[in-house]
Amino acid sequence: MAVIRNASKVAMAGDPRRRIPRTDSVLADPRVVVAAEGADRAVAKAAVVAAQERAREGRIAPEEVVAAAVSALAVGPRRVINATGVLVHTNLGRAPLSPAAVEAMEAAAGCTDVEFDLVAGERARRGRTVMAALAAAVPEAQDVHVVNNNAAALVLAATALAAGREIVISRGEMVEIGDGFRLPDLLESTGARLREVGTTNRTNARDYADAVGDDTGFVLKVHPSNFRVEGFTAAASVAELRALPVPVVVDVGSGLLGPEPLLPEEPDVRTVLRSGAALVTASGDKLLGGPQAGLILGRADLVHRLRRHPLARALRVDKLTLAALEATLRSEPPVRLALHADIEDLEHRARRLADRLTRGSPDGHGDLRGGGVECGVVSSVSVVGGGGAPGRELASVALALPVRLALPLRLGEPAVVGRVVGGRLLLDLRSVPPHQDDELARAALACT
Ligand SMILES: *Cc1c(COP(=O)(O)O)cnc(C)c1O
């Protein structure tokens, strides 16, 4: 035994692994002590042991163990490369912001003129430049208002226009938006009563007309943005309902401001307003590609009532959201670029990346044969996601990697999240902005 131990000591002489610091000394390092503040001792120890393990495997230098442990103990959100092929992935924070939006948020992070007129030197209407940008993008809207999210927009409309009264809604549009939240429950929580009309698959204009009366606050149409009903179906169009003596409120969900040729079945704000909707609500962080927000657009008198309702103050968006939203409206956000990405460009990126990964050359230069990873290029199918266009498949291209890389990629910096299909890890490039290709290659090679 002793002989073997000595032999291995000899073999390790000059081995960098001998310089890996001991667990207790790493735990006592002041930087680790600070990072582990408030954390369980077991959690801190696990982070240190994992960092030592990475050093033992040669993936980091022994001198980097402390930094790796500190990084593992870091609190706050982690950066993720979305290679799932789901363009608007709710669990990954929905729409990634455009560089312009990030820049605008940075500018607004300190003190800013969100509610101040620098020319006049006095108070001004909050977020007026965003409202102007929205009004310019949707000339059909007489007025616009922005709240925390689309759910908040619906709550505000229901409270201000129908509390104690009825909202007429089709049985086919009683939607669960996700994580167990159901729009009917949300609407009833405001004190409005739901008057259900029609059936799950068929509701016509007559059903609405028969239900509307003195007690009706408004008619609500909700776009089924996360499911599809096929077969023997019928739904009343906004144009058919516009003649009703009550406002027609339409929840389009996705946040498309104008028609999107690639998603012909997805409703958009401008078209819906033109067909006669009194109010439209939409999310800011789905196909609009901006920050979480709820947009309310339409008739001036109704938007005014919503904006002046006491509840509006509780649903107000902060200056960072306003800054990001305005910049989103003035730029081409990543979600739209991903939606429009050309399949040949995706193939080209995939082949280049596969070549770099196979050769073990993260930056494409130099040939580090032997350090690469087995990587193929396969066709794939992307989807918009919970953000809209259910059932619409978008042709895409993916890198196919050994499935054993799935976990280390998720734990990397940045984390990379793909999909495991048929025993392989697929990294779908449609949901990855091209500027992240280098990082993706480095992350994948760091796991080999
Ligand atoms: C997503 C969605 C909502 C909820 O919007 P949030 O911005 O997440 O609050 C409501 N209605 C429809 C039709 C949706 O698609």
TrEMBL record:
Enzyme nomenclature, EC number: 2.9.1.1
UniProt key word Protein biosynthesis: yes
Cofactor needs: pyridoxal 5'-phosphate
GO molecular function, a single term: L-seryl-tRNA(Sec) selenium transferase activity
Superkingdom assignment: Bacteria
Keyword Protein biosynthesis on entry: yes
Residues of the L-seryl-tRNA selenium transferase N-terminal domain: 17-56
Gene3D superfamilies in UniProt: 3.90.1150.180, Type I PLP-dependent aspartate aminotransferase-like (Major domain)
Pfam families: Se-cys_synth_N, SelA
Pathway in which this enzyme or protein is active: Aminoacyl-tRNA biosynthesis; selenocysteinyl-tRNA(Sec) biosynthesis; selenocysteinyl-tRNA(Sec) from L-seryl-tRNA(Sec) (bacterial route): step 1/1
Known function: Converts seryl-tRNA(Sec) to selenocysteinyl-tRNA(Sec) required for selenoprotein biosynthesis.
Family assignment from sequence similarity: Belongs to the SelA family.
Protein known as: L-seryl-tRNA(Sec) selenium transferase
Taxonomic path: Bacteria, Bacillati, Actinomycetota, Actinomycetes, Streptosporangiales
